[in-house]
Design a protein that fits this description.
The complex is a heterodimer of chains A (115) and B (111).
Chain A (H helix, E strand, L loop, with lengths): L3 E4 L2 E4 L5 E7 L5 E7 L6 E8 L2 E4 L6 E3 L9 E3 L8 E8 L10 E2 L3 E5 L1
Parallel strand pairs in A: 2-11
Antiparallel strand pairs in A: 1-3, 3-8, 4-5, 4-9, 5-6, 7-8, 9-10, 9-11
Chain B lengths: L2 E5 L2 E5 L4 E8 L5 E7 L6 E6 L5 E4 L2 E5 L3 E6 L8 E8 L7 E3 L3 E6 L1
Parallel strand pairs in B: 2-11
Antiparallel strand pairs in B: 1-3, 3-8, 4-5, 4-9, 6-7, 7-8, 9-10, 9-11
Classes of the chains: A mainly beta (115), B mainly beta (111).
Chain lengths: 115, 111
């Protein structure tokens, strides 16, 4: 079955450490997204990519970085510059918005905590 | 500024007690409104897309409707397995086409 796989499910970060969250999709989607979800808040967009080798900052990109070297993969790095990284991180994919109005499909998330 | 407001924040129902969840939106040139269901510790699961005022879609006990200012998710005779957080998101006419999400409504259905 096609879908989005996020790993690991749980991740712990030490002070001053960078950590990378994995997101892989086999839906053949060009567009991929990273969101952050905090209790009582809506999903907030961190970064998005509409095509390989291209990505744009979302609303809360500070302290995060991404790469898009393959269509299937869109890893997110939470850097030490992100002072409040504890959250539930969600990856999504879709057909590109410029092409059609299709829903985004989500993985099952990574929960990141500070040690 | 594009905005989505969901109400109520939480809703507790008895099994079989029908009700509605509200999603009010302000967006420039609505291209689509999306409903998702999210279980604890899981990612959102897509339910419906609505494109224009007057449109309705149904799936089992759920029915979504859309007006020019809001959408309703009607739940008929809910069961405990319908307990989840329901998220609403809109896509406006901007060139990037990113989604704006509401904070969700947490639904609890007691047997």
């Amino acid at each position: 079955d096609g879908g989005i796989t996020q790993s690991p499910k749980y991740l712990f970060r030490k002070e001053g450490q960078n950590v990378t969250l994995s997101c892989e999709q086999n839906l053949n989607h060009d567009a991929m997204y990273w969101y952050r979800q905090d209790p009582g808040q809506g999903l907030r967009l961190i970064y998005y990519s509409q095509i390989v080798n291209d990505f744009q900052k979302g609303d809360i990109a500070e302290g995060y970085s991404v790469s898009r070297e393959k269509k299937e993969s869109f890893p997110l790095t939470v850097t030490s510059a992100q002072k409040n990284p504890t959250a539930f991180y969600l990856c999504a994919s879709s057909t590109p918005p410029r092409v059609s109005v299709e829903p985004q499909h989500f993985g099952d998330g990574t929960r990141l905590s500070i040690l | 500024e594009d905005q989505v407001t969901q109400s109520p924040e939480a809703l507790r129902l008895q099994e079989g007690e029908s009700s509605s969840l509200n999603c009010s939106y302000t967006v420039s040139g609505l291209r689509g409104l999306f409903w998702y269901r999210q279980d604890p510790g899981k990612g959102p699961e897509f339910l419906f897309t609505l494109y224009s005022a007057g449109e309705e879609k149904e799936k089992e006990r759920l029915k979504a409707t859309l007006t020019k200012k809001e959408s309703f998710l009607h739940i008929t005779a809910p069961k405990p397995e319908d307990s989840a957080t329901y998220l609403c998101a809109v896509r406006g006419g901007g060139s990037q086409g990113n989604l704006i999400f509401g904070k969700g409504t947490k639904l609890s259905v007691k047997p």
